[in-house]
Design brief:
Helix content is about 25%, strand content about 35%. It has about 290 residues and is of the alpha+beta class.
Length: about 290
């Protein structure tokens, strides 16, 4: 009689799989490279005799990285992974896994399986990011002209990376933003204001775990028509000319001084030659007069 109500083995297997996945949760974590990260399960008081397994998914294959079980009343925990070496630590009470000095190569899906009477599975997607670089602000006008600039075209740039965005803020309001999936190319974002006024403009580079800012300094970056200001290249040329002129003047003064000195010396020598001659003539005239 009961054979008529026997459940088909395939249906039993399907039911078992549904029960296994019933406790599965997907949690997304975003972490900074180099930090110590704990994947929290939010569980308390995991059954003391539970069999705990952690897996890391690599190239669609689940690699077993932690095995913790009770054997003859003794807790045996193996960290069976060359990739993570001595960087893993399991908390058997909660099932949480700690990863020390996490790197971008550790990004991926981690699975926790706890086996007691039934098997329960939790999945965690972990994305690890490098800290974002500090943005740099330059002036686009420098590429167009080397003369005195009446306009200022600030251009902000930053090294691109995973999920990096670059934005301009006027005060606290974001006025423009850019991002690119091609991390091999640097990000560039112009301010798109021909003559920025004295408002506070800030360029912000960010990814999900870090932020870097650079404030626009109009005075240093651009030449504003609020007074007569000479460009640096013109200043250098002017300084070179003044130096040359100064050198010529100095040489001229030295030449005149040497010439005057020689002239004076020559006059003195001529005077010494004339004086004895005059004196001799006077003496001869006196002798003639006496005779």
């Amino acid at each position: 009689m009961f054979s008529e109500y026997r459940i088909h083995p395939a249906l039993l297997h399907l039911l078992y799989c549904l029960l296994c996945s019933a406790g599965e949760e997907v949690v997304r974590l975003q972490e900074l490279e180099g930090n110590t990260v704990t994947i929290h399960t939010e569980l308390t008081g995991v059954q003391s005799d539970a069999h705990i397994l952690w897996f890391y998914r690599s190239e669609n294959t689940d690699i077993k990285i932690v095995i913790s079980q009770i054997i003859r009343g003794e807790i045996i925990t193996d960290y069976d992974s060359e990739k993570f070496r001595d960087r893993l630590q399991l908390n058997r009470t909660s099932g949480s896994l700690t990863i020390r000095n996490i790197s971008r190569e550790d990004s991926g899906v981690y699975k926790l399986q706890i086996i007691t009477g039934i098997s329960s599975v939790w999945s965690f997607s972990v994305d690890v990011y490098a800290p974002v670089s500090k943005p740099v602000i330059g002036n686009q006008a420098e590429k167009r002209s080397a003369s005195l600039r009446e306009s200022c075209s600030p251009l902000c740039s930053v090294e691109n990376g995973k999920d990096v965005s670059l934005s301009w803020y006027e005060g606290k309001e974001r006025i423009s933003s850019i991002s690119s999936s091609d991390s091999s190319e640097r990000l560039y974002l112009p301010l798109n204001k021909t003559n920025p006024d004295c408002s506070t403009y800030t360029c912000v580079a960010a990814n999900p775990v870090s932020t870097q800012t650079t404030q626009l300094n109009i005075t240093e970056l651009c030449f504003i028509n609020t007074g007569t200001k000479v460009p640096s290249d013109l200043s250098k040329r002017l300084a070179a000319v003044l130096t040359s002129v100064g050198l010529i003047v100095a040489l001229s003064i030295l030449f005149v001084w040497i010439w005057k000195k020689k002239t004076k010396q020559q006059v003195c020598e001529d005077a010494e030659l004339i004086y004895p001659e005059v004196k001799t003539k006077s003496h001869n005239s006196n002798e003639a007069h006496e005779s």
